[in-house]
Design a protein that fits this description.
- The chain is α/β, with parallel strands linked by helices.
- It folds into 2 domains: 478 residues, Alkaline Phosphatase, subunit A; 74 residues, Arylsulfatase, C-terminal domain (2-Layer Sandwich).
- The longest helix is centred in the middle third of the chain and has 34 residues.
- The strands form 3 sheets. Strands 7-6-5-4-8-1-9-10-2-11 form a 10-stranded mixed sheet, with helices on both faces. Strands 13-14-15-16 form a 4-stranded antiparallel sheet, covered by helices on one side.
């Protein structure tokens, strides 16, 4: 375990070539028409952490006891856990909402898939567009150093929009949505993940020509983030750092020393893990009242119906997944150690959330079929293997919520999150107030003393849709969104809308809306569309008004 426990006792518990360069924040800050309301000596740092496809109960602070996550747990328990935090159904739309403070359509990510019905349409550009001002752009304009290390996934199919184009002063980023976690041997087949250059990593606007042999994604991201922050440690300007590791997103590839850390731990199967995780989450206080904790499995075949070989493969994938999460937590500890030893942690807000629910599906899919992969049981987890987590474990990780990644039900969009303040006086707080990923930007801006109108292009960009949840630090029961405020969202024709405890869902390719009350039915088992047509009509009317304004395209299957 790292120094984080001691720290909290002190503080209160893909085109080649260069993209346009950003001016130094000190210079740009002098030209800003409206400076931050806080003086330089008062302005806090921000570390924003976004993990990729983690489960709701993976970390101890949210009920898991099978994977050691001491650093994430210390942060979460030292701050306010957000148990009603909502993302979008998949990686890119969530990240576009996070960095724009508005909906994924407005930000240009109406679909992360370049399907024929979306090509050439406004709001479906597949990249972060200039209709919005990004969070790093706003922070940099106010004199913040801005750094990123991790997954971008907002570049477009032509790889034309890079982190350095959208406000990051320093950045090391994976451009597509997924890739090998190790460096590919020379001449290797690229993974089947859609359009991508041979080396899909970019640093400061320049695509890399190769990766070192000892490259491993999580470790490199941490090395780069510490390097960037350390380069300006003596600066009187604060920093905004975005850490977006790709682990534990597929493929399940693990450093050799970590491959067998969890050997045998999951031989009891995914139903046993599902029940244990739910019990732990209930005891941790991070589940809504009335949730049925006995629903397992949801989609996968029962464990005792699997063959011995299928059980062995499933156990192995979960062991590897656990190793990736535990390693990620250890690497995060290096960032926290650095910030603590350099005296910067005591002035840093930390916000964490996952990007969507855990990914289910088959363990071996089309991406696993390349000839360079050896997916024998003995080889799984090595750099020349490619496997996914598997449906049964995804069911266990999202329970008691329904479904998983790519779904609009709570298991797909309700994700673990927390905010930790250097001034937290009552650690261990839990807030069940509904918040969304769009709310992160205005929260950081409020804590930094930055107004929406202060941005130089404020009149040229769309307004922020999100609302600050900074008040939850002092009052976890504060209501962030009004009871009649509708939050309509859609990704690639899969539509849903939240309004207080009410929620409507329209599956992709369907014309019929479903209605759920999340307070009375957290598992979303009872469709109330026939029982409450008045509520259904009200919500659908609000959604269709928003959809018409943006020209949302229903997708035909």
């Amino acid at each position: 375990m790292t120094r984080i426990g001691n720290i909290f006792s002190v503080i209160g518990v893909l085109l080649f070539g260069c993209s346009s360069e950003l001016p130094p924040p000190e210079i740009e800050a002098e030209n800003t028409t409206q400076q931050s309301a806080l003086g330089p000596e008062e302005r806090p740092n921000f570390l924003l952490i976004v993990t990729d496809d983690m489960g709701y109960t993976d970390m101890g602070a949210f009920g898991g006891t099978d994977i050691p996550t001491p650093n994430l747990d210390s942060l979460a328990m030292g701050g306010t856990r957000l148990t009603n935090f909502h993302a979008n159904v998949s990686c890119a739309p969530t990240r576009s909402m996070l960095l724009s403070g508005t909906g994924n359509h407005e930000a240009g990510m109406g679909s992360q898939w370049a399907l024929p019905e979306f090509v050439g349409r406004t709001y479906y550009e597949g990249r972060l567009t200039d209709r919005v001002a990004s969070l790093p752009e706003r922070m940099h304009a106010e004199g913040y150093h801005t750094y990123m290390a991790g997954k971008w996934h907002l570049a477009g199919t032509d790889f034309a929009v890079l982190p350095s184009d959208r406000g990051f002063e320093r950045s090391f980023a994976l451009i597509p949505g997924g890739w090998d976690h190790f460096a590919l041997p020379a001449g290797s087949q690229k993974p089947d993940v859609g359009p991508a250059p041979d080396v899909p990593y970019v640093e400061d606007g320049v695509f890399l020509e190769g990766l070192p042999d000892d490259f491993y994604s999580t470790t490199t991201y941490v090395d780069k983030l510490i390097e960037y922050i350390d380069s300006n440690e003596s600066s009187d300007q604060p920093f905004f750092a975005y850490f977006a590791p790709t682990a534990p997103h597929w493929p399940l590839q693990v450093l050799p020393a970590w491959r067998d850390r969890f050997a045998g731990d999951y031989d009891a199967g995914y139903e046993a893990l599902c029940l244990a995780r739910q019990q732990g989450a209930d005891e941790a206080g991070v589940l809504p009242a009335g949730a049925d904790l006995g629903i397992c499995p949801e989609i996968a075949a029962p464990w005792d119906e699997l063959t011995a070989e299928e059980q062995a493969i499933n156990s192995r994938t979960m062991e590897l997944y656990a190793a990736m999460v535990a390693h990620l937590d250890t690497e995060l500890g290096r960032v926290l150690d650095y910030l603590g030893s350099s005296g910067q942690l005591e002035n840093t807000y930390i916000i964490y959330h996952n990007d969507n629910g855990p990914e289910g599906g088959e363990i071996f899919d089309r991406r696993s079929a390349l000839s360079r992969f050896d997916n024998s049981l003995e080889n799984l987890g090595r750099r020349n293997s490619w496997a996914n987590l598997g449906q049964g474990w995804a069911d266990a990780h999202s329970a008691p919520f329904r479904d998983q990644k790519s779904s609009p039900y709570e298991g797909g969009i309700r994700v673990p999150a927390f905010i930790t303040s250097p001034e937290t006086s009552e650690p261990g707080r839990i807030s069940d107030s509904m918040v969304t990923v769009m709310d992160v930007m205005p929260t950081i801006m409020e804590l930094a003393g930055i107004t929406e109108a202060s941005y130089p292009r404020a009149s040229e960009v769309l307004p922020i849709r999100g609302a600050s949840f900074a008040s939850l630090l002092e009052n976890p029961a504060a209501q962030i969104h009004a009871s009649d405020e509708a939050i309509p969202l859609d990704h690639a024709g899969l539509s849903f809308m939240l309004q207080s405890d009410w929620k409507i869902v329209r599956p992709m390719g369907d014309t019929v809306w479903q209605l759920y009350n999340r307070a009375d039915d957290p598992n979303e088992l009872k469709d109330l569309s026939q029982d409450r047509p008045d509520i259904l009509i009200e919500l659908v009317t609000k959604f269709e008004s928003h959809a018409s304004e943006l020209g949302m395209v229903p997708r035909q299957l």
